[in-house]
Design brief:
Layout (H helix, E strand, L loop, with lengths): L15 H4 L30 E2 L6 E3 L8 E2 L10 E7 L11 E10 L5 E4 L7 E4 L7 H7 L7 E6 L21 E11 L8 E2 L9 E2 L10 E2 L10 E7 L10 E10 L5 E4 H4 L3 E4 L5 H7 L7 E6 L21 E10 L1
Parallel strand pairs: 1-4
Antiparallel strand pairs: 2-3, 4-8, 5-6, 5-7, 5-9, 8-9, 10-13, 11-12, 13-17, 14-15, 14-16, 14-18, 17-18
């Protein structure tokens, strides 16, 4: 299983689709063989003062998205949050509560001991910059920075792991942490897939809108019988990495019933993206998204035996033996 970042906490509960699926885990956390500490965002620490330094030198791996080597801190670190934009990107600005995709390295100021990095895992971290989701130092240091930027910052315990430290990572309660973060992308409730349009020529299948303005796409369900087998077809085909059966994904989605076309669930309506492991959703989602590329919009038609069958979620508009139709935008692999 893929090792999980030490920076993050267990995300909030899943949306109805995943929570009521046929997997009994009931959790949206990524597959992991290591524990995740609670972030300091649950504390009442006041916003930090942001200063320019001091910060230790980056001595190797100085290009964007290269694994950096960072010198040991010299002297006493700042008691404030020291933040420096090492490489200024020209992309979209990150806002608080956005999800960011980033590669990063973290080490301890006093010893230069590297306690975590995503470069060796070959998988960027995708995490929401929200209180309670990540340590506060990240929220304050990265808000306002642009994609394509490399940001270096030092985090005192108050905005890191607090006086308790992080025993798993070897971080003591008085350790100041140094991070180098390469911001690859940012996502929010207005994000859409950005792939190339794929012809929708089968009149027996629903037609999904191809707008990329962050608004919910239309889903037109045809007259006629629903397919008996799973359908998973590109509407917009992205050029990102393929999603594996063990992966977690960040998505926008909209779900309607085949019978009548009524919407029963939507991230667009909630104005909030969602993330989950493909091991923790109904089989139709897991099978339909496996092998699809990041940046894509996918039409997924789920027959009852791969959905909720005769046990639909209580309080939903889904009836027994319903065929479900989804438009799913795969924004990132986690």
């Amino acid at each position: 299983m893929r090792r999980r970042s030490l920076l993050i906490a267990v995300p909030a509960g899943l949306v109805t689709l995943a929570a009521c699926g046929d997997d009994d885990s009931g959790s949206s956390s990524n597959a992991s063989d290591s524990a995740s500490p609670e972030p300091s965002g649950t504390s009442a620490a006041p916003p930090p003062k942001i200063v320019d330094g001091p910060l230790p030198a980056i001595t190797a791996g100085t290009k964007f998205d290269e694994k950096p080597t960072v010198a040991k801190g010299s002297g006493e670190p700042s008691k404030d949050l020291a933040v420096k934009t090492v490489i200024a990107g020209g992309g979209r600005a990150v806002a608080e509560n956005d999800f960011v995709s980033a590669n990063y390295l973290g080490q301890i100021w006093q010893s230069a001991k590297v306690f975590d990095n995503s470069y060796d895992r070959k998988t960027p971290l995708v995490i929401q910059l929200a209180q309670g989701s990540i340590i506060d130092g990240w929220r304050y240091a990265l808000t306002g920075k642009k994609t394509g930027s490399r940001v270096q910052f030092s985090v005192p315990p108050t905005w890191g792991y607090g006086k308790q430290g992080n025993e798993q990572a070897g971080i003591k309660g008085d350790d100041t942490l140094v991070f180098v973060v390469d911001i690859q992308d940012t996502f929010n409730a207005r994000s859409s897939a950005d792939g190339e349009k794929v012809p929708q020529d089968d009149a027996a299948l629903p037609k999904v809108g191809t707008n990329t303005d962050g608004k919910a796409p239309s889903i037109e369900v045809p007259d006629g019988a629903a397919p008996k087998k799973l359908v998973a077809e590109y509407v917009l085909e992205g050029d990102g990495a393929e999603v594996g059966a063990q992966d977690s994904v960040l998505v926008q989605y909209k779900g309607v019933l085949w019978d009548g076309g009524k919407e029963f669930d939507s991230t667009y309506a909630r104005k909030q993206l969602t993330s989950f492991s493909l091991q923790q959703v109904v089989k139709g989602w897991a099978q339909g998204l496996t092998g699809k590329k990041v940046g894509s919009r996918v039409l997924v038609v789920i027959p009852p035996d791969l959905g909720y069958g005769d046990n639909p979620p209580q309080g939903s508009d889904i009836k027994k033996d319903s065929t479900l139709v989804f438009s799913v935008d795969i924004l990132a692999k986690m």
